[in-house]
Amino acid sequence: MPAANPFQDPLRFERRVPPCAIVIFGANGDLTKRKLIPALYRLAYDRRIPPGFAVIGNSRTPMTDEQFRAKMREALNEFVDNTPIDEGLWDDFSKSLSYYAGDLNDPECFNLLGKKLEEIEQTRKTEGNVLFYVSTQPSHYEAAINGIGRAKLAQGSGWRRIVVEKPFGHDLATARSLNNKLHEVFSEPQIYRIDHYLGKETVQNVLAFRFGNGIFEPLWNRRYINHIQITAAESIGVEGRGSYYQEAGALRDMIQNHLLQVMSTIAMEPPAVFESDLVRDERAKVLRSIRRIKPEEVPLFSVAGQYGPASIGNKDVPGFRQEEGVSADSQTDTYSAVTVFIDNWRWADVPFYIRSGKRLPKRVTDIAIQFNAAPHSPFDRNGADSTPGSRPNLLILRIQPEEGISLRFLSKDPGEGMHLRPVSMDFNYGTSFGSRSPSAYETLLVDAMVGDATLYTRQDMVEASWAAVQPILDYRETNHVDFPNYAAGTWGPKASEEMLARRGHVWRTP
Ligand code: BG6
């Protein structure tokens, strides 16, 4: 009998979005216009949005419904991706959008929201289902949760759920306290902590690749894998987000959340069934198995970098400390690299090298799995030019751009003699499927509306990933680095190369 396939159940894939209202706190912010409204519009375009649907935007800025709609219409022009704007569809869709100004610290803001929700339930037939979406500045998260709790909006005639944007806490202690606050008002199954990397098609495809195929899994462990590199490089700087980023830095902004989740996708055990809590249990186990670094080991297991000014292609690029909103002696990391060990039977002693940075040479996110070299090569006895040992098999999972997978192996160079050369076998999403992939936010919004939390993080996952980086954060509080230590447009500080060199490894250039 064939082994059970965890994906047999088509549940996740053929789902009808139920009638509901989405309340967006922070509706005047960047996320709403760049991600949320374009994703909802695209879902409407794909006929995934039910007739009983409404969005209520809130922020402090006074605006009429009409002004809010006009603003969202402009946002679509700029941010909707690969989707024509159909005026008839927009007309209908825009009728579902409304807005009210209110201060989250003022109980009146939530009394008013309660009335609006009742009204909308009648006029737009949303059946009392409400998805609260908190995308304000993090300092206002608690006010939003308190307000919902006080006005008793966390329960109603339909389901009530809350999506909390990142950053989820600033460190382990604040993440715990945010979890406690949420639990005063919502139960865990109502809480959806978003990590948009988990919604990316290519990250989901890692699961399909690993658990839908039989040939990779036997190799997927410490016996065959030498080490793994996870890279998330961005060529942009902080793009007007200097004051936010100065408080966050690369370790908090990318590694603690997105990249540790990517790592857990690579490292988790196969779930028996592709079901929310079973999948999340497996991810959580990985995150809890991350080896804790002792304070004195921090410099050996992590590297912080900050970009300095440079001239790239005849253009002067400012250093991080010269960016708007950033202090001239900022100690924020715009680059971080860490070595992670997962202490379990599958992965013991296999290094996972994870790096992320701003102003690197290009935008690329990928995972490179380097297998052990062939134990012996019969071909290089007389010092021929091929040295298979130094060119082990490499499996590259390309998350973005140029989404795909390639496997590098050695092949005989045509001609006389036995000269070997690395070649690669490539799978490319675009050419294989030829269809547009949904954005992470489209996927995740549908998931939250249908009540599927598989691709959202759970309390234990968030706390375990904060616990993993906490020793590094603590160390950096008091041990300052001589920043800037890499020039904009380069692959980060030299210390990062040295971190890998200590184990005889080298960062690949993606
Ligand atoms: C966000 C970070 O969570 O992810 C940003 O706050 C970063 O700093 C972004 O640029 C990267 O996301 P993506 O989907 O463009 O890789």
Topology:
Blueprint: E1 20-25, H1 30-45, E2 53-59, H2 65-79, H3 87-95, E3 97-101, H4 107-123, E4 130-134, H5 141-150, E5 160-164, H6 172-185, E6 191-193, H7 196-199, H8 201-212, E7 225-233, H9 242-248, H10 250-267, H11 276-288, H12 298-301, E8 302-305, E9 307-308, E10 310-312, E11 315-317, E12 335-340, E13 352-357, E14 364-371, E15 394-400, E16 404-412, E17 420-428, H13 429-433, H14 440-450, H15 459-478, E18 486-487, H16 494-501
Parallel strand pairs: 1-2, 1-4, 2-3, 4-5, 5-6, 7-13, 9-18
Antiparallel strand pairs: 7-14, 8-12, 10-11, 12-13, 14-15, 15-16, 16-17
Helix pairs in contact: 1-2, 1-14, 5-6, 6-15, 10-11, 10-15, 11-15
The chain binds 6-O-phosphono-beta-D-glucopyranose.
Bound small molecules, deduplicated: 6-O-phosphono-beta-D-glucopyranose
Span between termini: 41 Å
Shape: globular
The structural class is alpha/beta
Largest sheet: 8 strands, mixed
Question: What is the helix content?
Answer: 25-40%
Beta-strand share of residues: 15-25%
Helix tally?
16
Which regions contain 5 or more consecutive residues with pLDDT less than 50?
Answer: 6-12, 385-389
Q: Round the mean pLDDT to the nearest integer and report it.
A: 93
By DSSP, the count of extended strands is: 18
